[in-house]
Design goal:
mainly alpha, 3 helical TM bundles of succinate and fumarate reductases, 4 helices, transmembrane, electron transfer activity, Succ_DH_cytb556, Succ_DH_cyt_bsu_CS
Length: about 130
């Protein structure tokens, strides 16, 4: 086989970044973030079940600036993974594979997730749950 001095398989450095590529990477990354962030949810449930002292400690940690950033990131990851998952379900039916439709649906997943996250946090903050 001739030595061509090129990668054997196309790699991320070969391609120009496009929204479709980013949406695929984000879908995987948000799946990982959701798995890791679920530890916070389990901690909150266990603290709630353990009594008032444990829950106050949990609320203190999660109410800190770092805790709020983690919750905001986790809620966006959940929103994005949901929107992009719905997009994938639609594509599983065979629809939306034309390049313009694919690009449009990728952007709709990103925009929809941001809107959904804002709505969730508006509901939480206005409802007094924070």
């Amino acid at each position: 086989m001739a030595d061509t001095q090129r990668p054997l398989s196309p790699h991320i450095q070969v391609y120009r970044w496009q929204v479709q590529m980013v949406s695929s990477i984000l879908h995987r990354a948000t799946g990982i973030a959701l798995a890791i962030g679920t530890v916070l949810v389990v901690w909150g449930i266990l603290a709630l079940a353990s009594g008032e002292a444990a829950f106050v400690q949990f609320r203190t940690c999660i109410g800190s600036p770092l805790g709020l950033i983690l919750l905001l990131g986790w809620s966006w990851a959940l929103s994005y993974h949901l929107c992009n998952g719905i997009r994938h379900l639609v594509q599983d039916t065979g629809a939306g594979y034309a390049i313009p439709q694919f690009v449009r649906s990728s952007w709709l997943s990103v925009i929809g997730s941001v809107v959904l996250t804002v709505v969730i946090w508006a509901f939480v903050l206005i409802g007094g749950a924070a």
